[in-house]
Structure of SpoIID/LytB domain-containing protein:
Amino acid sequence: MNNMLSWSLKRLVLNRHSWWVAVLWLMWILPAQAAEIRVAVRNNTSQVQIGSSTTGVVRDSRGQTVMQLPELQPLTVNGDNGRLELLGDRNSFGASSTFWLEPSNGGVVWIGDRWYRGKVKLVPGDYGVTAVNYVDIDDYLYSVVGSEMPTSWPQEALRSQAVAARSYALYHQGKASGRSFDVNSTQSSQVYKGLQGEAPSTQEAVDATSGKVITHGGRVIEAVFHSSSGGHTENSEHVWSTAVPYLKGVPDFDQNAPVYSWRAQFSLEDVGARIGYPGTISAVEVLSRSPRGRAKRMTIIGNAGTLTVTGNTFRQKLGLRSTKFDLSVSPTGISVAGNGFGHGIGMSQWGARGMAESGQKYDKILTHFYNGTRLGSMND
């Protein structure tokens, strides 16, 4: 396994990605940023493979140097019962409650299947090992912007995404006391693909907005976002039950989104299996909706009685793009016609693109989607 990983590391650096040399050049010329964010890029997995593009220093929980890791040489970290074991190709380098790997000379780290800027801390998770990438926040955002939004989109849309993502990360960093990380790398926080998510356009967007955050009442906001609302965003309390003053519904400009409208078909048997209804379904009804038409409570009716579920549960079980839908039931199945993609709260990414294409600047885009906010500096 380790020989294969070593070969993969070398192949990735030398052959596979033509942008690698350009990325290294950009890393060398870009100045270091001031703030650092902790991102869980692997969470509670039985083992993690790590490596470094340059010679790396491996340290244990006491800060003692375990080894100098040669460039492109893989290591495996196993986690069990709150302890970690560091394994090389044929031998163990010992156990510890934590391990650090920090590249030298501006190198980058390999974690699992991607390259990342910064360094990595390995900590025990509930069921294994968690790999936490410690990275300067703007370096992190270079990737988040390109992981969350197409890099070819208008610069003002990308800048909107950069400021929203910076605000979201800092908000959660302020709530992370006692945790080993601030955010994770998936859609449950913000998608972060390491160097793979970066592009010159995302670096431009982050650099042009460096330090900018969205504030409400003098505090950085939780700047949530989604792909497309289907015409109008939603108040937070109508989806998540908690009213947030800056997360109010506003008109969207997402009509050109490919997910603005969509359709899906399911057999009654498929719906029953996915929802967990034990009998034969005869009807599916929406009991209540939000003011903008999102399903809040639903009922499934059949020969085994009535089952009530939330609109979010129905969406998740059937893999629908949003809870903004209408449905019709026939003897053979269910037809669903919906709008938008995502929870519909905060900034619509397709709406940001639409506003950018109409000539709006990123600050106007952000204050449109986040009610009563202003732009400030993370250093204020």
Q: What stands out?
A: The first strand starts at residue 36 and ends at 45. The chain has nine helices and 24 strands.
